[in-house]
Design a protein that fits this description.
The protein is an alpha+beta fold. It folds into 2 domains: about 10-35 and about 80-125, no CATH class; about 40-80, no CATH class. The protein has helices at about 40-50, 55-65, 105-115; strands at about 25-30, 80-90, 120-125. The chain has a 3-stranded mixed beta sheet with strand order 1-2-3, with no helix packed on it. The longest helix has 15 residues, at about 105-115. The protein is elongated and about 60 Å long. About 15% of the residues are buried. The mean pLDDT is about 95.
Length: about 130
Amino acid sequence: MTQDKTPININQFPSPPEGALFSLRECKTFYLPHPYCISTQHVKHASNDFCGMLGREAIESAERKGIKCWTCKGQYSYADHRAEQTLVIVVPQNKDLDAVSGLHAYLLSIKPLAKSLGITSFAFPTPAQAR
């Protein structure tokens, strides 16, 4: 899991159609299942074996030696932790997204742009959930 690149500004997306019941909220990085947490053991391993460079290779090497994510204690490997660039779209209800008028067509229209910007997922909170 790498650090975020340049934040994605929602102004890069076209506005939803006039009168739409949904709105763009933000582009946000969600870490699944959680951010990978390095420990002092990771730092020591990188210092001893990777000239102090704590990158993917050092973390994966540390895992092979039994040094795991400090949060989940090895329940998930480094490769299982991921950062999802997510476009958050506020909807009036999220039980049936097909019932949100115009949402499907809007998502199809922005799909190429979202992909080019690195958006890998969408979130659809209601106004109450988006607070």
